[in-house]
# Entry
Amino acid sequence: MATQETRLAARLLAAPSIGLLFVWMVVPLAITIYFSLLNYNLQTSVTTPFVGLSNYYYFLTDPAFLTSIMNTLLLVGAVLVITILGGLGMALLLDQPIWGQGFARIMVISPFFVMATVSALIWKNLMMHPVFGIFAWIASLFGAKPIDWFGDYPLTAIIIIVAWQWLPFAALILLTALQSFDQEQKDAAQMDGAPPIPFFFHILLPHLARPITVVILIETIFLLSIFAEIYVTTGGGPGLASTNLTFLIYQTALLQFDAGGAAAGGLIAVVLANIVAIFLTRLVGKNLEG
Amino acid sequence: MSRQHSLSRRITMTTIAYLFAFMIFFPVLWMIITSFKSEIDAFALPPKFLFFHWTLENYITVQGRSNYPLFAANSVILAGGATLLGLLVGIPAAWAMAFAPTKNTKQILLWMLSTKMMPAVGVLMPIYWIFLKLHMLDTHIGLIVILFLGNLPIMIWMLYTYFKEIPVEILEAARMDGATRWKEIVFVLAPMAVPGIASTVLLNVILSWNEAFWTLNLTTTSAAPLTAFIASYSAPEGLFWAKLSAASTMAVAPILLLGWFSQKQLVRGLTFGAVK
# Structure
């Protein structure tokens, strides 16, 4: 099928995409590396332009760096766990013989369509406000003290918001996977009297390995660069409590006007993201074969 | 006996499923309801769920203060432009990789996806600088290019998984019948590819519409989409929940409706070939 001519045509057709993505990756990266070696402040005039690696030194030894890495890992990890477990639960529920499955699905997918700034604002005010929010009202029904989410548990609050945004994605992919699972296989298992729990672990879960991998991959790509939710709700605080790496770099660049430091931080973020990427693509590559 | 059992099981399952689905949906619903309240009702304790004086005043105020159609039009231009450009460049690439794969194809696909791993903030400075030099700040074309490149890997990936499902034998049969390459593409491939392309378009429009890093940092007024519209309401309207809700509802309504009507298409595409 793949003749010489076809192969050439295929190369030509793929070339624009590969070329554009390559430029999109390399040019900004090169400029970032260049900036990262300068003492380049957007506010003050430059005095000592070339400073070698000192931007990296300051960024890496800043205690804020370690904190932001921890927050990034916590945010990504917690959201992945919540969305996959919650999504699996929701998918299993929707896969049961229920009435009006379509309508329930529409309700579940809705958060996915809401832009990050809007969902952050809605959660911050209408849901999590310590006096007038829905959560505070529910707490008061049980005579509990309302939680000041963004004051006391800022990172947890952001995790809840982000998990809410991504749970629909996980739920729907896993639901599609469950539905593609052969009905006959299910019936056969039931006929054999396979008890539900071993059936789940030995038959259903292996079937879901691929979709779960894809959920992890796609979500991680987006979760590593969470920005709008933090920008709108906590601004990274109180202190550094909800600052992730993306937000730390943003602060360095646009609040401290330290372009050199931000570029160094950006490059560190790129390196870290690539480590995650290598790990993930290995995982996915293995799972997507065949 | 067995039917009785399954009926009661069905009722229980429906109730539980709807309970959880409703919990997930609630914040969206609550936003919509609050947008029809007076500010006083919006802060009422206990919350007023349905029995309050429904009003459109917030929508009128929001429209009076900022030009919603302008922001909405920008969102449409940006999302539409980025998607069109993506199709133009992405379809040939995905077609090539699906029908004439080399031993590097998988590697290239994964590399493409890995470009998305690059945190946007890491390249904010250079992109801002380039845009400044090229006078592309706050222009449609500048943002369209950014959104297009940002989503291209996902687009190619999705199209690729769809195209791979098209059986090669059909192409061979068409070729046997003397179809030229163009005829093959137009009459054989295109009809089979339409569903895949449709769901790719949907996802891309949604991602572009909701993109809130570049659109906030690279626009001010003339190319600013709805993400900027809502951001302008975040600070002063923190104390005005009803107006905030109305602005939010206006910002998400178009894509929410699109999503609701096309969710079947979309969900199939979202699986990135993970579900066979």
Remarks:
- The radius of gyration of chain A is 24 Å.
- The CA atoms of residues 149 and 156 of chain A lie 8 Å apart.
